[in-house]
Specification:
2 domains; 282 residues; 10 helices; 14 strands; alpha/beta; 32% helix
């Protein structure tokens, strides 16, 4: 399968933080969720992918090209956690500027997005709510017909209704199998709704790169009383509670059969992330 993003052994050292040999891929036609706690390295990785930071090692391919190639960047739509257009601009002012930057700018599509999100064309951005500003940023990112959309915490701080509207738009975008989405967020419920693959980063290192359905269908939490001993090879990480020990397991059905006195529950994406970040490895 062709990749829209291919990252291999990516390294970056900055004060008090190191991105350590990060590797993953974003297959064409798929949505990849990039999760991790704040400060884990998500934004640093994205800035390196976009050639906004100089890497210390490793390789990055963006739509099969070097990220420094302007042709690659023209096919990428980027949305950060804030709308960076001047507050005195209106959506029509935004179009005037971006239409001169992107040869593939589609004014008709842009105005359809504005209509879909009920964004007034002639009102200044400073009058918009945060949700409206993010809808404008996404509308502008999509209006130049990108093949790849990269979002860095674009749904952070938004109410559930606005977040759901944005997620629906991403699902519409991916219906074209030439399109891909790389979606960085600490809101794991958003990733769980729409992602095909999930990449977890923790303290500058990739913990796993996995199909979302595999994570949700197979992984589980084994809850045991203090008197039940689980063999180290049967779990990934564990954590202690006041009355029991909980284990993250790769196959909850097998674990439930082997330890019938324990309770084997399904694990959400948030559960899995928290276990890896806070748990004790086997």
């Amino acid at each position: 399968m062709e990749n829209s993003i291919l990252v291999r052994d990516l390294c970056k050292r900055i004060p008090d933080f190191t991105l350590d040999r990060v590797s993953f891929q974003v297959p064409r036609g798929r949505i990849v969720g990039f999760i991790g706690e704040n400060g884990a390295g998500k934004s640093t990785t994205i800035r390196l992918i976009l050639n906004e930071l100089k890497k210390d090692g490793g390789t990055v391919e963006l739509l099969g090209r070097d990220p420094a190639d302007p042709a690659a960047r023209r096919d990428v739509g980027v949305v950060f956690d804030a709308c960076n257009f001047p507050e005195v601009f209106t959506p029509l002012d935004v179009e005037k500027v971006l239409a001169g930057v992107y040869p593939a700018w589609d004014g008709g599509a842009y105005r359809e997005y504005l209509k879909r999100f009920a964004l007034p064309e002639r009102k200044q951005i400073k009058t918009f709510s945060k949700g409206m500003k993010m809808k404008l940023a996404i509308s502008a990112a999509l209006a130049h017909r990108p093949r790849l959309l990269i979002l860095d915490e674009a749904t952070a701080g938004l109410d559930p209704v606005v977040r759901d509207e944005i997620l629906d738009l991403l699902l519409d975008f991916i219906q074209d199998e030439e399109h891909s989405v790389f979606f960085s967020s600490h809101i794991t419920s958003d990733i769980q709704k729409i992602a095909d693959y999930v990449v977890l980063i923790h303290q500058g290192k990739i913990v796993f790169e996995e199909e979302k359905d595999t994570l949700l269908d197979r992984y589980g939490i084994l809850r045991c009383g203090k008197n039940t001993a689980v063999e180290p090879g049967d779990y990934i990480v564990r954590r202690e509670t006041g009355v029991s020990t909980e284990y993250l397991v790769r196959d909850r059905v097998a674990a439930g059969k082997k330890y019938p006195k324990a309770v084997a529950d399904a694990a959400s994406l948030e559960d899995i992330m928290l276990f890896y970040i806070k748990g004790e490895a086997s």
